[in-house]
Amino acid sequence: MSGPIVALSGAATDAGLRRSLNEDAFLSVPPVFLVADGMGGHDRGEVASATAISEFAPFAGRESLTIDDVREALHRARVRVDGLSGGTQAGAGTTLTGVVIADVAGEGYWLALNLGDSRTYRLAAGHLEQISVDHSIVQELLDRGELTPEDASRDRRRNVITRALGAGSDGDADYWMIPASAGDRILVCSDGLPSELPPERIRDILSVEAHPQAAATRLVQEAVLHGGRDNITAIVVDAVSVARRGAATSADGPGIDSDTLPREPVGGMR
C-alpha cells in the first residue's frame, strides 16, 4: 500500500437547466477532493470558485496533507478571491468543502473542511452522515429550533450563507479529523445536489453504484432530471485501503472495521 489511504474517485458536474453558466469548480485528485460553488449573486462567481480550487492543485500527487498545508492554501485562496472584488461592495465569493487525505501517527484519516453551504457526506456501513455543517441563515434557525427540516427545505432564505471565501466574509473554515475505514464512501457536492435529491435517494444511489464515477454521474443526472435549478457537482471518493499502525485494511480483505470514532474538530473548531 502507498500512502495512508488508497482512494478511487469519480466526479461529474452540470450547469443545470436554468443557468447558462456553471459557477462550480472541483478538484478530484488524491489527496485532495474539493468542490467550490461560486456565488451567483456576486461578481465573477465562476472565477472565484476556480481561483479557490487552483490553490490546492499543486498538492495533487502527494500521499497526504497536514492541517497547516490546508490552512495555508485556504489563506492564499482568500487573499486571491478578495482581490477579485475590484472595489465593488459585495465582491466575488465562493463556498469550499471536501476532504483531503491525512496521516495521523501512521494511520489514514479524512481531514474535512467547510466554508458555506456546499456539503460533504460519508457513507459507512449503509449509513449516510452529513459531515459538514451548513453556514447559512436557515441552518442557524434550525439549530435554534425556529425552523423544522421540512420548513427549511422551502424557506426563501435557504441560499443565504453566513461564511464564504470572499464576498466580504472573513469567517474561518470548519475542520474535522475523521478516522478512515476501508469501504468508506465520501460524497462532496455543491448545494444543487441536495436541493433536488432527498438524503434517502442520495444514499440509495451511493449504495447501488459500485464505481465512484458511475455514482457521481448518476447523482448529477438525477438532480438535473428532478429540476436542475442550480449548478450541480458531485465527487465520490472510495477508501480502497486504509493504513493502520502495523497493518492496513482493505475493502476486499478480512478485518475491516466499519465503526469509527466520532468526528473530531481540529484545534477546538467546528
Q: Could you explain the architecture of this structure?
A:
The structure is a single chain. The strands form three sheets. Strands 1, 7, 8, 11, 12 and 13 form a six-stranded antiparallel beta sheet that branches. Strands 2-3-5-6-10-14 form a six-stranded antiparallel beta sheet, with helices on one face. Helix content is 23%, strand content 31%. The protein has helices at residues 45-54, 67-82, 137-143, 149-152, 199-208, 212-225, and strands at 5-14, 24-29, 32-37, 93-94, 96-104, 107-115, 119-124, 127-130, 165-166, 174-179, 185-189, 232-244, 247-250, 264-265. By secondary structure, the protein is of the alpha+beta class. It has one domain (5-132, 162-253): PPM-type phosphatase domain (Phosphatase 2c, domain 1, 4-Layer Sandwich). A hairpin with a 2-residue loop joins strand 5 (96-104) and strand 6 (107-115). Helix 5 runs antiparallel to helix 6 (212-225). The longest helix is centred in the first third of the chain and has 16 residues, at 67-82. It contains six helices and 14 strands. Residues 253-270 have low confidence and may be disordered.
